[in-house]
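Entry: F-box domain protein
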Amino acid sequence: MTKKRRIVGNARTPGWERDDLGYIAKPDEIYEIRALKNIGLMKLVWVHATPCRKPLLEAACALIPALEIELDPRMRELKWVESFLIKCSNLKQLCVRFATCGGYIPGLHHRFFNDIAATPRVVPPVETLMLVTNGFTQAQLTKFVGRFKDTIRSIELCDIHIDEDGSWASFLGWLQENIPNLERFEFQALQHGRWPNPKTVCFESIFKDPELVFKDNPRTQNPYVELAGGRLELDTYRATRGNGPVCNVAFKGSNAGAREALRLLALAAVPRALREGLTRCMPRIRVW
């Protein structure tokens, strides 16, 4: 494949072969359309796809196992991005992030989630779903995640806001009851309420449960508890004086263990106004 006469890939590059689409030629640039069999990850950021470039991307849809989408209110090709996602019939990992701030502000970046939730077309069999820096109503978040509920095994939410009409405890309860194959989850800095005064969901009251025996992870120094079907680990934010609130939690194990961990977290979830900033580790697609 060449772009502006610069070789990007050719017939001798491992994994490349000619596609039935053949060639698309313009006076100033030539694209040789090929299907890259060993694609590990594709990122869609600031998409302004011209008609001549779209076939090149669409030719790879069925081969993509991992896709990262960064939404921006000024994105011109939102409908095409939605269609592209639906065409990724073998997609296993999906990460969607919003390019600017979180907080629930109705706008273009929410159309994507609403459109995917409402589409009558079959959605990809996503097993790992990551949502980063965005705001929802609880109904929006439930409907979007619900479109992948039969295939999701892992979900990560980072810096996600639910408006004041919703409840994180209620959403965690919904996950517990409606995601039958969930085996892993990670939540970081879940927010409740609208800007400029959102509250952060904290889980430290879980330490008061007399039936749970917490230990310290020697590698991370974080407290964890072994449940019947896996391990629940809590990241205790270390404030200036001693330990602070627990805002980041993670679980890995069996589906039964995930349901029990979600039940415990739903009971412990309390929105609090925090004075200090939080430490986050933004989720990224893992390509093996």
